[in-house]
Amino acid sequence: MIASGLLLVLWAISMPPSEAVGALTAVDDRGVRLRLTTPPRRIVSLSPSLTETLFAIGAGSRIVGVTTYCDYPPAARKIAKIGDYNTSVEKVVALRPDLIVAGAKANRLAIQALGRVHDIDKALFAVEPENLTELYDAIHRLGAITGCVEGSRRTVAHMKRVVRSAGRLRKSSSPRPRVVFVLQRDPIWVAGSGTFVDDMIRAAGGVNLGRSAGKGYVPLSLERLIALNPEVILSTHSTTRDLKRRSGWSRLSAIRNGRVYKLGFEAVRPAPRLADAVASIAKLLHTR
Description:
By secondary structure, the protein is an alpha/beta fold. The chain has helices spanning 2-13, 48-57, 89-94, 108-115, 132-146, 149-167, 196-203, 222-228, 240-244, 253-256, 274-286; strands spanning 24-27, 33-36, 43-45, 63-65, 99-103, 124-127, 178-185, 188-191, 207-208, 217-219, 232-235, 260-262. The longest helix has 19 residues, at 149-167. Strands 7, 8, 9, 10, 11 and 12 form a six-stranded mixed sheet that branches. A four-stranded parallel sheet has the order 4-3-5-6, with helices on both faces. Strands 1-2 form a two-stranded antiparallel sheet. The two termini are 17 Å apart. The protein has two domains: 2-162, 3-Layer(aba) Sandwich (Rossmann fold), CATH 3.40.50.1980; 178-286, Rossmann fold, CATH 3.40.50.1980. It has eleven helices and twelve strands.
């Protein structure tokens, strides 16, 4: 399904630089209404997920600055770097951006620092989606403020088609597999309710046992994990062999049956490829 995401990006790259002329406006997740008199020509992205999204909707050719973690699509790696998790305000200002897109929470320190720079603060647009529905909305708003409205519509429509198709892999008569998404092994942290991962597991036809641990990304004791006894363990870093060697883990059904699946980082990056990750999870859950 990653090929699906690549095709989406290739389609977007072939689009005109901007579909709009004249003023653009949108409200970000801080509640700030940004108004641009013309479509932005020099965009700086402070987040890998936002860089990926900008390319998907057709604004990739106008990005002039990204972080060192912006690695998708491959073209993003060739763009000037403005820092990693720590944003260099000086490098951002030197690029003369007319739009800066950021994570409202993840980039809050950078937003505060940039907000103190005259005129730059007027170019900030921050989003922080926490589930698939909010991601779809954020993509539409990014389309509005970049002049890529049609590109954002097509991106969201494509994502929804992929997610719907993934949901059909589970036969209606089949039980939903019990799943835990492990973010960290020592101590154990899992994806709880109100997260992208929770949305993705449910969309893929599974039951997220991490919901019982609370909202967000939360700690879980090994004793509690053994009591939950997931049939499937998902992770971005662990395999069955990794976990089988850890004390107590071999008691889990997922370990005994070899149903620990390592996913790519697109599975936890709030960007268009999340739809492909849902499809991958659905295949892992329902086709063996």
